[in-house]
Each structure stands twice: as structure tokens, then as C-alpha cells.
Amino acid sequence: MAKVLIIGSGGREHALGWKLAQSPHVEEVIYAPGNGGTEVEEKGRNVKISKSSSQSFRDIAELIASESIDLTIVGPEDPLANGIVDYLNGKGYNRVFGPTMAPAKLEADKFYSYQIMEELGIQQAQSEFCYSTTEAIIAITRMATSKGIVIKARGLAAGKGVVVCDSNNQALEEIVKHTLKFGEDVLIAERLFGQEFSVFGISDGNQVYPIEISLQDHKPQLDGDKGPNTGGMGAYGPAPIASVDVVRDVAENIMTPVVQRMKERGEEYKGFLYAGMMMTKEGPKVIEFNVRFGDPECQPAMMMIKSDFYETLSLAMAGRLDEVDMEFNPGASCCVVMASVGYPGSYRKGLPIRGIEEVESVEGVKVFHAGTAQHKHEGLITSGGRVLGVTPYSPEGIKEARELAYSATDVIQIASSTSYRGTVFHFRRDIASKALED
User: Is the CATH number 3.90.600.10 carried by domain 332-436?
Assistant: First the structure.
């Protein structure tokens, strides 16, 4: 029986651990540091780690040794970009699922990923590297059209580093604020049009095995894709815009060539790989790569996987992806993120969360925690911006999964707000609505 360690504290980590715990090969899932939901999950246990990168790396190495951890999965992008896999490999711990620092630049450095795609002739938005606000202003003036322009932070920005501008004037207004917040290195990119979708795969360093469900994330804060970008307000899958054949094609002709090019550079990539795609009139084009599973896309993806996920990841770690044959549930899953009022700006913490037991008593409904904590006297409380990912699965399809999701969010909102005597959560009302459009 194996012990699995999940590094991170969000809804993605909760979903990964929940799915791995279903394997008969897994004895326990340890979350470092986890959240209020992982703490009470079956086979789950939270372990505190230091918040500083250098000390947390040491804490995790000691934890792997003391607990005889069989498999470690790194959830968030920051520790990957900061070299946690390199550090653990250097300590002799090689069953760590995630890329080392060099290939993690695929997400951490937009310039790097753009160059790799250029070399491989992969379809993407035409872009220009800018190393100062002045250069960015010149690029915007030269590149912007009546269709607008896109500003992208070069480095990691927790999903909030992209600004889609409708006009030249808007871009010129936004660029100064953007560079002050995220730094002066920016990618000024052509604006693409169409529906976005996400493809996730598992890389063993040689090839990418796709999770054959396309997913669609909802980044903006408000209905109708309005408002500022967030880490993600909801996701669902499969997305009708991208069939299984499209997903396989992205994995075979985009993701696998990228992984193989990095290996040629001596930057072998093992771990989850995400391709953010846009279905344009010219066909699928890449918007970005991430070097980990997306959040909140991970939540519905885990609900859709039928196979033993621990066995799948173990084969990937052994370089035996050719032996993987994943099965998926029929139907669809929909995740609605319940966020603290004010997110992605300032928000209150410590507010009561109620109603979860009631909604989880309904067949097919699972609530994944992110910004939650267990309080000694108050019970479950809010502790972050994105608090819950209400994620039902229905074998009947997306319409039914979506209805379950919104029935559940209403119950939690009413119960929590009654306890607090004020509104606790904000959530979008249009998650998965595109899937229902003809």
C-alpha cells in the first residue's frame, strides 16, 4: 500500500487527492499543507509546512523520508518554477510528478514558450517581446487593430497576468498599470477570436498521453466573461467545441512535439501538461502552456476519470505511457467556483461555510475545497479568495450536471449567508452556458 503526498492547498490538490484515494493501492493521501476539506477527506491528512520556499522544500524532503512517501505530486506552479523537483531529485527522491525548473519555463516564461512554438511551427497568436513599458507602447501602437490586442505578463501571475483589450486606446491605458503590477517584460499579442478550451496530458518525458476530455475554463469574474481576470470561476467538460479527436490531435501534434523538443535541449519534461487553446476559424491555436493541472479544470476532470489514477501516474513515472489505457465516465461534469465577495480584489476571511453536508448527500455532487479552514469553535470557515468548487457529475450530460451545480451553490449560499447575516459568496451564474448553445 502506497502513501501519496500532494503539495498545495487548493481545489486542484483536493481533487487530485480525492481521486488518488479511490485507488486500492493507496493507503493514505497526505496534503502539504492542504485545506479545511482535505483535512477531513477519507484517507486524507494535512501536514503543515513552512511558507518560505527554501524551508518548505526542506520540510517536504523530511516529510517524504519520515513517512516513506511512494509518490509526490506538485500541484501549483510556483514551487515547480522555483525548482522543488530538482531539489527533491537531488535528495534522491525520484518519484516526484512534475517538471524540473528548466522545462517549467514553459509556463514561467512566456518568451520561452513562444520561441519553442515558433521553432516547431505550432499555430499561435503573433506576438512581440517587450522589455520595457516604452517598447510595449511602441508594439501596441504598431500591432493593435480594430479587433484589439492582448497584453501578457512574461512570468507567473496566478492566472491574472493577461489583459484582453478591445482597442488601441484601452491597451495604452492598461499597459502602465500592468507593468507596474507584473513587471516590464511583456508579450504583446495578436487577439484571437473563438471559443477557448483546455487540453490536459500526462508526459513521461517522451510523449504525452491525453486526458481525452476537453475542458472549458471561465477566467473573468462576472457573467458574460466581463470583469477582471481571476484564477478561474468555473469549468466544465467535455466541451462540445473540441471533440475527443481534437484533443488527441492537440496531444499528438502540439504537446508531444514540445516535450520532445525540450528533451533535445536536455530539459526532460515529466508531469502534467496543459495547453490552453482557442478554436479559431483557421483551426485550433495555442494561447498558452501550463506545467501543472489547471484549477478549476482539474475538478471536473477528476470526476470524469473512471480508471485508477494512481496506476496511470505510476506508469508515467516509469516511462511506460504506452501501457496506459484510461477509461472515462459518460456524461459531463461542471464546477462552479464559490469565491469570497470582493475577489479578485480585497475580501474578508473567517466567514462561516454551511450546507456542504446537505449538498453532498445528493448523488453525483462533490464539493472540493480551496480557501477553507477548520476553526476550533466556528467549524468550517473561509480563508481565501476562491473558496469552494462545487462539482457535480451527471451521466446524463452537461445540462443535468449544471442544474445540480447551481442547486448546490444556492443551498450553500443561503445556509452560509443566514449564519453570517450577510452575503458570503460570489459566483458566476453562466458556467457551462456555452455548452448549451446551438
Answer: yes
